[in-house]
Amino acid sequence: MSKSNFTRRGLIKTGAVAGAAGLTLPTYLRADGHSGFTNAPTGDTVTLGFNVPQSGPYADEGADELRAYELAVEHLNGTGADNGMLETFSSKSLQGNGILGKKVEYVTGDTQTKSDAARASARSMIEKDGAVMITGGSSSGVAVAVQALCQEAGVIFMAGLTHSNDTTGKDRKANGFRHFFNSYMSGAALAPVLEANYGSDRKAYHLTADYNWGYTTEEAVKSSTEAMGWETVNTVLTPLTQTDFSSYIAPVLQSGADVLVLNHYGGNMVNSLTNAVQFGLRDKQVNGKNFEIVVPLYSRLMAKGAGANVKGIFGSTNWHWSLQDEGSKAFVQSFGTKYGFPPSQAAHTCYVQALLYADAVERAGSFNPCAVVEALEDFEFDGMGNGPTLYRGEDHQCFKDVLVVKGKENPTSEFDLLEIVEVTPVEQVTYAPDHPQFAGGNMGTCNPGA
Amino acid sequence: MFGLTKRDTTLLLVVAVLTIFAPFILNPFPEGSAMAQFNAGYPDLMQRLVIFGIFAIGFNILFGLTGYLSFGHAAFLGVGSYAAIWMMKLLTMNVIPAIMISVLVAGLFSLLVGWISLRRSGIYFSILTLAFAQMSYSLAYSVLTPITGGETGLQPKVNDPRILDAALTEGQNPRANLFGLEMGTSYEMAVGGWIFTFNAGYYIAAIVMLLAFYLSIRIFRSPFGMMLRAVKSNQQRLNYTGLNAKPYTLAAFVISGMYAGLAGGLLVAMDTQVGAERMFWTASGEVVLMTILGGAGTLIGPVLGAGFIKYMENIVSKINKTVLEQWFAFMPDGIEDFFITIVYPFVGKGWHLTLGLLFMMVVIFLPGGLVQGGQKVAGLFKRKKPVDDKPDGKTTPAE
Questions:
Q1: How many domains does chain A have?
Q2: Minimal Cβ distance to B273: which of A55, A119, A153
Q3: Which chain A residues touch B154 with a CB distance below 8 Å?
Q4: How confident is the model over B254-264, as pLDDT tens digits?
Q5: Residue B193 and residue A19: Cβ atoms within 8 Å?
Q6: Which of A251, A334, B175, B334 is the most buried (most CB within 10 A)?
Q7: CATH no. for residue A79?
Q8: Structural element, H or E, at residue A189
């Protein structure tokens, strides 16, 4: 019986050669009879699958991710105006001649920010287009679903923007890798800054988006702030589809809390923050202290949506274009030249993931997922923004510095909305692989699909 | 044959032949050619085509026969999917128990929803079913996260109990199978430049679809089906003759709910994952579109509609700018850019726009759906005026 799941493109060449003599007998094909793994590239090109949200609530981020991938492909193939982060990346195995000499081609798909649609799109990339790696996405639900699919199919998954602990926690997979930071890191990075600015005697009130990412973020922020002495007065779940948060904001004032934590992302955060500011929360005095608002996960696109309301509000972010290290400057430079505006953090993480994959293949000397996993595990690198970074082998999570940012008081442009308050060193956000917030996962072993 | 009239037997045989040879029919273009973009003969899409065909056939039993427009059928599909994945997590990765339980659970759930919703008819019925579906979606997305996995959904994991299965060896992933035959198993046949993929999962789903199709023909032709048509044409008159229509409509509702559950179970069997989005109201709307696009009340229509929409979603949505540039590369630069600008909004992420335009055209020019289009074309060649009142499943209101 054939066990050849998901094998198509890898066999085309063989089929074409065999078919050249005219009609041939049906060939009975097994992937491992040829090269031992799913979609092994046989020609002079290799196909990568960029699976990003092109419609739905995160379409803006998806568009920015796609721009970053296109830029990465140009840099990998050496056809771009410059070489971007290839110049600053600590590993020098990428030559700008494709991956292992094969020209990089790509297919795109729309995740619609739905796990079903994302899986359908990824499956068509694997089964129809012969993609050897899938990357992208802008929500944790999609990341977890596609990661599980890639594990089954035997291709590598390089996660895009996904912040929930689960992606490299209870839902971690051997074929999946995450460069983006997570809820735990946000909490750990924010707590000291909050303590320094607001003191250790505060009463916090959480409004949390009612889905997995909200839960893990609430838990992370709660446990880090409680560890430094804050008290959590109440946590309230808000429906993801909520657009008017007035009814949730009013009880905050009666609760005696003096800090409001908004575990919201995207449009949710824009609306809840706007409501909170309109209610005059930030002008209030509670327990003799100024009332404060905290947003654990910030993005530039959210800051843009919330406008002037973000001024002075703390949050964390994976990367920001105003960073002054060589890698970030090179990336902002080439992205800005091509598209005319600075990249978002989603674009950064996707660009870096594409390069990291290509580099791992070069170093491993093979597209075989198991070889790539081995090359990426415990890989240390630098020059990609965020300083020295470790891809930890136990859970395939990147460990790097985390940025604590705050809404800028006097923005100079529509992109200059956040300022970096502190770069939290990596030691402070590192945790054990079996930390309670990440427990329950079983990574399995790498699956080459044959 | 099989207790069907000659005409229906022919229809069933045509559908059977189409599904059996789908790997050939859907892959008309050689690999590597520019038109290969339009090939749909890969396992995932073929599976989806037949599974959503089942979903639409079931929906048509309710909507096409009784005229009750349910806007919440995705809830039954979702409930069936969750039931199936839990069987795979707890009992066995064999698809048979998963599919059976999904039909059962969806049937029970639709009994509850139908019993309440069928107290009203028309727009009120539609709104009630929509409310139930949205409620199920919200519950699955957040409140019931421990059972449904919430936003992340559910997948079989290596360390699930699975009491009937032997323990997995190191490095082995749980895979859906039918007594050892894995759903992902494919046999590939290379002929000339073509590659045809024969996928085990697809053929299992196709057999189930043929059974479902056969059952739906029998329902359409039965006295029970006649009663349902009577409900559609004039429920009041039916009541005045002393008949209680409720048991008939409820039965139709539960049957179509079970069809949806069957589709949900098969979806899980082919791709072992469930997300709450499959219960979102747009998913319920999609099956309405499929049925109307293909031809509501006809036997083959819903299957055609389902195939059409899934093809658009998976093929047209993947055409990006690079692909367009390849297509129009032979043109002079200025004209090439012009054509790309014109075509681009209709492909890729704009596939909804194309679908919307086609849907409008079908509704305006072919109110009977694609089936009516087919009849018109056939009429052109027959020279004879097509006779509409043959028992082909097309219904016309009594007044």
A1: 2
A2: A119
A3: none
A4: 999 999 999 99
A5: yes
A6: A334
A7: 3.40.50.2300
A8: helix A183-198
